[in-house]
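TICKET: design request
STATUS: open
ATTACHED STRUCTURE:
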């Protein structure tokens, strides 16, 4: 606590001098940070490094958000990244990750069958020899590790100017922000949608909320890549009219529950692992049914990253929720995908982990939150934490007494409150700081085009459908059979 307070006070003073252009009086911040850590003595060096990393992950973003200065955010990000890389702890962690990869490669090489020193020459005398020497067609499905590795090699060399948050101008001249909640689940009291409406009234801000899920509307809420509603939503993202997105992408076949053994009295078919860290899009040898399941989960995950990319280019806020990365590096998670790691190297993107029991969930539920331009996300969430909550012993894995999987959980009301406050807080700050832009609607002389009119009509329809809370609505499974018509 003392180290954290010292780091916070000193960094606040440094930010103040930076914003006042008192560069000559400002010390080297990295040297000052390291001197603070060295005050505990060499025997506690690793422990102090851990404290510094926790402080940088949870408290430093709040200091940056309070500064209300875009330049200091990028400067502090660079300084903090450089300071962390100087710590022996970070070097050891990097070395440990490399050794894990080397060990896996050596184990694979040791398990590979021995080959002769010189390849056996074969002729074409019979059918068997011709079949063994024919040209093999390579499959992209089995080159997944190389595909992810190529993304990990890409670096951000230059960044465009930060795009401003878009809003629509209403007939009364007031701005209206469109917030999209993908895979929102059923509408209910004190859900994310409900709290957004509550804060919109309290702070006099106009919001158009799109809650998209098949539990709300089988047609308008269908986010399968081939669905008409997804194509309409994608058009909205391309037009740059969405101000913020909350994504609750189904964990589906990425679920950690697939690595737990079936209970002794289980009478149903227990799902097996379908992915690994290396084969994130599916293991070799899957059945057709399992391939369809992995295709669905992979599609949803890539759609979530696509939404993030749209906001990176066109402006707006994003919070994407998914189960936290497992400790076992060989198990699959979207947070370690090559494309995700590329996006995480963008200075405006942050990945943080929470445990949902602190907001009232019935299990611990470690959860990763990927945020774009939401530096005060954790601070906003902490305002809704239930005080003195006791950590539950039950994990969200396995089946409950009714025989349904515990992984199917809704956000607790207090977590919805914290998420809604994070969005409203940053939208209000953007309005005050002039970091918003009005979206033009076609040519003023001839009015909006037919395609534009269809897009805005769809937005209005989805917003109207999502307003209704139905008492008989139920949670639907992530993997639902689809009906295709010729």
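STATUS: resolved
RESOLUTION: sequence designed for all positions
ATTACHED SEQUENCE:
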């Amino acid at each position: 606590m003392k180290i954290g307070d010292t780091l916070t006070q000193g960094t606040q003073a440094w930010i103040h001098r930076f914003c006042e252009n008192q560069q000559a009086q400002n010390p080297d911040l990295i040297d000052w940070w390291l001197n603070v850590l060295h005050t505990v003595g060499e025997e506690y060096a690793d422990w102090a490094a851990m404290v510094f990393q926790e402080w940088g992950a949870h408290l430093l973003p709040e200091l940056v958000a309070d500064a209300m200065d875009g330049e200091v955010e990028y400067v502090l990000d660079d300084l903090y990244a450089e300071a962390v890389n100087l710590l022996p702890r970070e070097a050891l962690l990097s070395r440990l990750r490399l050794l894990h990869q080397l060990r896996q490669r050596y184990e694979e090489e040791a398990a590979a069958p021995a080959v002769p020193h010189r390849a056996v020459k074969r002729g074409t005398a019979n059918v068997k020899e011709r079949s063994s020497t024919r040209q093999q067609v390579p499959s992209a499905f089995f080159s997944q590790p190389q595909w992810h590795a190529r993304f990990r090699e890409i670096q951000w060399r230059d960044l465009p100017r930060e795009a401003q948050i878009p809003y629509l101008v209403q007939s009364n001249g007031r701005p209206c922000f469109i917030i999209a909640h993908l895979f929102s689940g059923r509408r209910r009291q004190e859900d994310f949608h409900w709290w957004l409406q509550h804060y919109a009234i309290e702070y006099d801000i106009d919001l158009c909320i799109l809650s998209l899920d098949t539990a709300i509307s089988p047609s308008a809420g269908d986010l399968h890549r081939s669905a008409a509603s997804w194509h309409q939503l994608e058009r909205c993202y391309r037009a740059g009219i969405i101000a913020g997105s909350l994504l609750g992408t189904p964990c589906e076949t990425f679920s950690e529950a697939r690595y737990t053994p079936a209970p002794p009295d289980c009478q149903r078919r227990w799902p097996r692992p379908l992915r690994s860290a290396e084969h994130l899009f599916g293991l070799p040898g899957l059945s057709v049914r399992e391939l369809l399941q992995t295709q669905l989960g992979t599609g949803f995950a890539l759609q979530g990253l696509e939404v993030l990319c749209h906001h990176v280019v066109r402006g707006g806020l994003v919070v994407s929720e998914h189960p936290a990365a497992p400790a076992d590096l060989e198990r699959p998670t979207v947070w370690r995908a090559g494309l995700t790691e590329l996006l995480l190297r963008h200075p405006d993107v942050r990945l943080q982990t929470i445990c949902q029991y602190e907001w009232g969930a019935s299990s611990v539920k470690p959860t990763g939150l990927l945020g774009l331009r939401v530096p005060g996300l954790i601070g906003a969430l902490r305002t809704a934490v239930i005080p003195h909550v006791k950590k539950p012993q039950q994990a969200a894995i396995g089946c409950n007494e009714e025989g349904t999987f515990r992984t199917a959980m809704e956000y607790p009301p207090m977590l919805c409150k914290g998420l809604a406050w994070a969005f409203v807080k940053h939208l209000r700050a953007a309005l005050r700081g002039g970091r918003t832009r009005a979206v033009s609607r076609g040519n003023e002389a001839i009015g909006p085009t037919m395609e534009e009119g269809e897009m805005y009509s769809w937005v209005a329809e989805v917003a109207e459908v999502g307003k209704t809370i139905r008492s008989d609505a139920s949670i639907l499974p992530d993997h639902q059979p689809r009906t295709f018509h010729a």
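CLOSING REMARK: Confidence is low (pLDDT under 50) at residues 478-486. Residues 288-314 form the longest helix (27 residues).
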